[in-house]
Amino acid sequence: MDRGIPTEEVLTEMRQSETPVYYLVGTPKGRLNKLEAQLVSLPWEKVRESLSVKLLKQDGELYVLACSTSRQAKERGMRRRRMKRYWNRLKELSKQKLDRDRLLMKIGAARKEAGNAARLVELSLPLADQAVTPETFRFRLCKDKLRMVRKQEGQYLLRSNLVGEEASTLWKYYIQLVEVEQAFKTLKMDLSLRPVFHQKDHRIEAHIFVAFLSYCLQTTLQQRLKALAPGLTVRSVLEKFASIQLVDVHLPTTDGRELRLPRYTEPNKEQLLLLSRLDLKLPPQPRPELLDKKPEMTKLKMNV
Questions:
Q1: Is the C-alpha dihedral spanning 7, 8, 10, 11 positive or negative?
Q2: Disulfide-capable partner of 14 in 21, 113, 154, 164 (CB 3.0 to 4.6 Å)?
Q3: Is 56 helix (H, G, I), strand (E, B) or coil?
Q4: How many angstroms separate the Cα of 167 from the Cα of each of 45, 181, 266, 299?
Q5: pTM for the structure as a whole
Q6: Which residues make beta-bridge pairs with 53?
């Protein structure tokens, strides 16, 4: 199963494969618009507290329209913030004295920052031989597009050949795909598994094994955070603890030996509070070690 958006050719090969291949994939927004008339009449089926789905069987496939209230709030908040920045930026540009070329460059930068929210604003730009004035440079909100975007926020369409499965089972499969994708993302980004520049197989396997152990520790910390500090992420916790470092202090003695003091830096108030919240305790400071004086390296001379 794949969570991405494969092409029709790939899906056809999967359906015609001799060995059964099952898929649960996302679909582009355009297909949701095409199926909207058929999906409107179908009833919503509640899968969990904040998620409802509609199931549509068509041409041997099953389309799953999911609507998440939490995802809707997130997407709506992001769209509003980008839209507000873009609108304010257009107001600033309309008050500046710019020529047409500079205006187009600044609008292009603003559209890039706004992303899809820029499609909700219709611009009227001056022609090549016109000056930038309030009459030649105008903008307005596309209310029809805004209503369509608001209607589809928090909704996404999935496509599968698991026609006989229930909505709750399909959602479990989808969550598993999300978790697998997040695991690969964590291994490649947070744990820097890739790229691997080893020349021997056992070194590559050792690299992957150490990265897997790191992932297990990260997952353990993530589960601990869910139970004890749900507002924090693993990345934020590691960033807060990054300033706690282990150092070695070497002090010479009068008899020519050396005293080594392994010490970790004392945590600050915020780190102590976080350790207490997670029910973690730092080990006691390591005991000092008295080392013998290192033998001096003898210099060898070679006659050429």
A1: positive
A2: 21
A3: strand
A4: 8, 21, 52, 78
A5: 0.60
A6: 45, 66
* Domain co-membership, 56 together with 81: no
Q: Are residues 16 and 110 in the same domain?
A: no
Taking a C-beta distance cutoff of 8 angstroms, is the pair 47, 24 a contact? no
What are 259-294's pLDDT values in tens digits?
A: 988 988 889 999 999 999 888 888 898 888 888 865
Residues 6 or more apart from 87 whose CB is under 8 A from it? Answer: 121
Interacting residues of 199 by C-beta distance below 8 A, sequence separation 6+: none
DSSP string across 259-304 = EEEEEEPPP-HHHHHHHHHTT--PPPPPPPEEEPPPPPPPP-----
Residues contacting 245, CB < 8 A, separation 6+: 264, 265
- C-beta separation of 62 from 39 below 8 A: no
CB atoms within 10 A of CB 63: 21
Residue 302: pLDDT band by 50, 70, 90 thresholds? Answer: very low
Number of domains in the chain: 3
Domain residues for the domain of 101 are 72-150
Q: Is residue 251 part of a domain?
A: no
Say how far apart CA 241 and CA 272 lie, in whole Å: 10
- Cis peptide bond prior to 195, omega within 30° of 0: yes
Q: Are residues 129 and 158 in the same domain?
A: no
Reply yes or no on whether the pLDDT at 235 is more than 70. yes
- What residue type is assigned to position 242 of the chain? A
Question: Could you report the per-residue pLDDT of 48-62, keeping only the tens digit for each?
Answer: 888 899 998 888 888
Residue 298: the pLDDT is 41
| 3 Cβ neighbours under 8 A, 6+ residues apart | 24, 25, 26, 174, 177, 178, 181
